[in-house]
Specification:
Putative membrane protein YPO3302, mainly alpha, 165 residues, 0% strand
Length: 165
Amino acid sequence: MTAWIEAALASTLALLSLPAYGLSTLFVVAFVSATLLPMGSEPALFGLLKLEPGLFWPAVLVATAGNTLGGAVSWWMGRGAEQAYEKLRHHGPAHGRALRWLERFGPKACLLSWLPLVGDPLCAVAGWLKMPFWPCVAYMAIGKFARYVTMTAALLWMFPGRLAP
């Protein structure tokens, strides 16, 4: 059974890695990496652009969309976790310093959703604090778009040239 699962996973990954499926794969990787799973989407974006340099803006936009939607899922996960937590616990003392900081800046704090390690949980905490959904998503999108443009441009500058097929 394990060999069958490994073979199916290998063939699925091989199919998704084909350049014809590059943008859809990039979307999925960017989406999953914006959830609380430890994963980065920049290598997938960089690899696609090394294979297909003409896809710079479409790839950045697809990665931004996938990562933003993943952040929105994290927001909803945080919202659901808060509701479940409140059912099990009475309101307690004041929030910690990080929560006060988030409450002070509101949805604008989601601009930092691009940060490694803290960005994805930040989206969940924004949902937990019941910050307005659409402003949070808009700020997530701005931050994530800026990250993809900056990091991808820097990587392409540092590693010029196209990969050999």
